[in-house]
Every structure is written in C-alpha cells, then in structure tokens.
Specification:
about 300 residues; mainly alpha; two-stranded antiparallel sheet; about 55% helix
Amino acid sequence: MSAYAAGITVVPPGNRNAEQPSIPGASVRRTRAVRTTFDDKYDKVIELLSTDKSLMSKIKSTAAAYGIDPIHIIGAIVGEHTYNVDAYDRLQSYYIKAAAYAGERFRFAYDGEGVDQFVQRPQFEKCAQFTDSYRLWTCRENVWDKSFRGEKVDGKSYPDNRFSAVFFQPFYAGQTFGLGQLNPLTALMLSDMVAKVSGFPKLDENKASDVYDAIMDPDKTLAYMAANIRRSIDDYKTIAHVDISDNPGITATLYNTGGSAQRAAALAAKGPGAMPEENYYGWLVNDKLAQLKSLL
C-alpha cells in the first residue's frame, strides 16, 4: 500500500517485481570477458565493504551531510561493482589510477572541438539562463539530444550516442570511473551541490583532469555519489510527488540509469498513485537489503 503525506506518495521498501528483471547483454559480456560471475563480483564487493572500516565511516559521514540514509550509497556501490566493474581489492588502487589520469594532458572534446566551444553554438543559447550547474548541464544535454545526436549540423555529422560518451570520455567511450563509477558529465552537473555541502572547489569543463580527480579519488567521489542520490530523491519528490527515500532499490535503479528528472516527469504523467519500479540492478539491492544493512 502507498502511504500519503501532504500529497506525497511514499514508496514502501521491497521489490515490485517478483523476479529480477533481465540483465543487459553488455553487463553479461563484460562479466564473462574477465572469467567471473555476478555472484563472485557481488561477494567481492561485500568483502571490500565489510573489511574497510575507514570507507564505511566515510560513507556514513557523507550520507549524513547530504541527508540520506547510508544504505543508498552502499546500494549504489554494490550495484556498480556487481554489474559494471569488478571491485578493487584495496581502495588504494583508485588513488593510484587517479594519479595516473591526473597526469594526462587531455580535454573534453569531440573531433577536435572542445565542449566549451561547442556549447557556444546558437542552439544552446536558451541554456544561458541557468546559473546552477545541474540545470545548465541538463539543458545542454537535452539540446544535444534534440539538435545534434545522430544529426548532420552545419555540414558535420554527430554520433548517435549520449552527450557524456561523445564529449566527456576521452579515454574510452561510455566508460565510467572510480568507486562510484560516475561519468564526468554527471560530476559537472552535481558540482554546485557538492561545492555547497562538501566545500570542494567547483568543477570546470576546461579542466578535465580536475573532473577525473573528483570522481576517482574515493574521498571526493563519495560526495558526488551522495549528491547524485540526493538529487534523485528530490527530483521524485518535487516532480512526481513520490518519496523514494525508503526504497534503496529505486535509488539504486536511478543511480544506474540516470535521468532522474525525466523519469520523475514520466512517472508523474501516469497520474496520482503511480509507483516507480526497480530494474535488475535495483532489484538486487532490495533483494539483498538485510545483508547490506548488516554492513552498517
């Protein structure tokens, strides 16, 4: 049953699907490629979380700063490392990798054109009204989807791919990084919230190495993870009048899919009382919730 408070539908704990929704083929192929299984990867990340007391302490303090239950951060980490990457044996690995990337000279660009130049095109003029990083970059992402993705503009053809994959991942298209497996565009969107809550410097699209450092350094990436989850909870409450804060499987699903504002709007369009559903990734989090809570 849904609970109602001041017109807000509260999503109860647990899964709405009796069985786990299908896992995407790309996730299956990645896992087979390194000769492991989802169960093995799940066990590995649980071991990491249960033995790294410093990490767990940071998760709790970061969650408190952003006003969320730490189980939401746990769920996102477990989902990412079960389905997208393999958990590192030690968090120190992330620091080493971050340092390697920070030493690179690179920029966010496509076919020789920096993203800072690209967003000066007239199609992006309407985005200039936004001063906060979340609305500014969300607007720019929407303009990309509407006017450039898969299109030929001014004689130049653009890939039919996400804005984040085309302009913001100079190493491997589509790859995400760090403990929270965030992509650089997401970090740029959340920059203002993280600066306000955690006091980290605001990110600049012209300083790509700083953006990678923010999502690779475990001490920083937890703040961006928490901000991402906080944004999803807020989007669903303000746009769809739905409270998802008691269901880590739903927040994990949104962490996996992104686009919380658009998804909240789609849910709102279904009418009062409509409930979000977990995907394969969120389903696992809810299914294993008792074990995940025991880590805290």
